[in-house]
Amino acid sequence: MRRSSVWLGRLHARAESVLEAERAQLPLWVPILLGAGIIAWFTLPAPPQWMAWIAFWLGAAAAFGAVGRGGRLPAALAVGAVLLAAGCLLIWAKALLVAQPPLARAAVVEMEARVLSATPLAARGLVRLEVAPLSRPDLPARVRINAAPDQMAEEIAAGDRIAVRAWLMPPAPAALPGAYDFARTAYFSGLGATGRAVGKVQRLDAATAGGDARATLAHHIAARLPGPEGTIAITLATGNQNWISEADADAMRRSGLAHLLSISGLHVSALIGGVILIMVSLLALSPTLALRWPVLMIAACVGGAAGIGYTVFTGAQVPTIRSCIAALLVIAGMALGREAIGLRLIATGALIVMIFWPEAVIGPSFQMSFVAVTAIVALYEYPPARRLYERRDEGRIKRWTRSLGALLATGLLVELVLTPIAFAHFHRSGLLGAAANMIAIPLTSFVVMPAEVLALVLDAVGLGAPVWWVVGVALKFLLWIAHTVASQPFATLSLPVSSGLAFALAMIGLLWVMLWHTALRWWGLPLAALGFFLTFLAPSADVLVTADGHHVAVRLGDGRMALLRDRSGDYVRTTLAEASAYDGEFASLAQAPDTRCTRDMCAMTLPGRADQPPVHLLISRSRLLVPYPELVAACAQADLVIADRRLPPGCVPRWAKLDRPALSAMGGALILLDSREIVPGHDPRGRHPWIVGTGSR
Question: Domain limits at 261?
Answer without folding.
Answer: 257-340
